[in-house]
Amino acid sequence: MQDEESLVRRAQKQDHEAFAQIYEEYFDKIYRYITLKIGDAVEAEDLTQQVFLNSLRSISSFRWKGRPFSAWLYRIAHNQVVDYLRKKKKVAVPLEEKLVSGGDNPQLAAERKLDVEQVLVAARHLTDAQREVISLRFTSELSIAQVAEVMGKSQGAVKALQHSGIVALRRALTVKQNE
Amino acid sequence: MNNKEFDNILNDCLERLLIKGESLQQCLQSYPEQAAELKPLLETALAAKEASAVQPRPDFRARARYEFNSALKETAAGKSRLSWGWFPRWATVAAIILAVVLAGGGTVVAADSSMPDSPLYSVKLATEQVRLTLTPSQIAKARLCAQLADRRVAEIAYMADKGDVEQVEILTRRLDDKLELMVAFIEGRGGIHLPGMAMAPPEEAATPPATYEAPPETTIPDEALTPEAITAPDKTWGGGDDAARNGNRHELKSTLLSDATSNRAVLRQALDEVPESTRDALRRALSVSEEGYEEALDALE
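Above: the input entities. Below: the structure tokens describing the complete assembly.
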């Protein structure tokens, strides 16, 4: 993608081509971010679409102040997710789920082939902040500095959350060997 | 080794493994003492990344792109309507006459509390612009912008309650402009032209149309008062006294903190009460409001 700042400035002037490039660059990343955050790939479609419509309508309010554009865009996505979850009043993880926390003689599911459902279910065991970091780092490939911008935290705090998030994810993906 | 050092090592390995595409073995060889602890974490991260690389369904992707392009065209069309730069000079004059000569009179007073669905609303906007122009100092202008932003928020909540998405979006743009203008005044980039006044020959500016017929956008478009329209710097932040200047900034900061909170509350409450069809537009207004106040408060730091 060409220099992001000039691209965004063009988009702010209603340059279709510039906005289309931004859309293509971020669409899949935002979709994956939302999917992991809400744990529902279908619902994530509508929310992703809404994020881009919202960004289109409010891009004129974005200001370059040393903050990356991605931080602004993910902030919109974050707000969209928060609104969605507030409405939905997220249900607790069902008891019958096969994934359990801890367990003796564990075998990590990651050693087998994981599917997205397993990851989504496991991600529910993370705190909101851990899930945010894991989503932004692993599905959207943002740098630590960018994640720190999006979350309004220090880079050190983000690294700590990344560590504890992976530990929690591993624990959640661990299944009892006899199941 | 403390946790912070390990967090840094883990992060370095993740960068190399997930972003740069190095192998797990390469990463572990770089940190032999931590390899045993790193290995399961990196395996988990790698597996989770691969598994969560979901792609939107092709039919959804196509539909989303189509709808986005349609919205893009609509937005561009709307922008061009708002950016004509056309402004009837006689309306400025009429507004000044209304504001100065009839100040306190029934029309202006009634217009002052009018809402966007009222015929008097255009008089309200014109009067606001005139007040802004006639307000002498940067800080007073910034304060006035804060008051006008409050009005826009109240109007947004009112129109959202009526389910008028288009008006909510127009008002959101006006709110954005007011907050942006406030930042410009805070940063000392003040001084504004009323289009059609300073640049027009007096005789032309003073010529109203033969009959008064209020167009939909009778007043000065808010776009005309954006920082781009701002002219000579005016550093009148409470005179030359530093203490007074600091006091003024402190007072304005308190006002803005309070406004940011109350306006967020107004919009959030409206969000719970308005028709579903209006909520997205209202969320955008909320986002514009939050970002605008944040920027204004940053400018005061």
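Note for the figure: Residues 90-112 of chain A have pLDDT under 50 and may be disordered.
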